[in-house]
Design brief:
A three-stranded parallel β-sheet has the order 1-2-3. The longest helix has 30 residues, at 3-32. It contains five helices and three strands. It has helices at 3-32, 53-58, 60-69, 81-89, 104-121; strands spanning 44-48, 74-79, 95-98. Mean pLDDT is 83; it is low at 127-132.
Length: 132
Amino acid sequence: MTFAAKRRLDYLLGEPLCGLLNAWVRVLGFLLRRDHSLSADLRRIWVLKFVGLGSLLNATPLLRALRHTYPGAELTLVTFPGTRFLGDRLPQFDRVLVARDESLGKLAWDCLRLLLRAWRERPAEGKLPRYL
């Protein structure tokens, strides 16, 4: 997929989907009286950064702060293949997960696979209640 196609897909599908999911989580959190504050005992943190090497480099102070604040947490970068080489070289990340972006079908399949993996691994889970 071209960069322009990725941006268009993000604009047409990503933003509305994130807005709907955010509203759904907030309503459910309110109805179920869930505490969404973060604990100091996080075991897994996923950083999603799909495009842009420069902004990932600019985020290294943030990544160092995450590592310092949550020293026992496994820090994972979720990205596209073009950004993987930088993620593999940044010492803050324990692992890098890649979503293929050569075609819409591969992207959709890998996003579904990553969603199921996130459900199974539960990033940002520590002393937090399970939401799903």
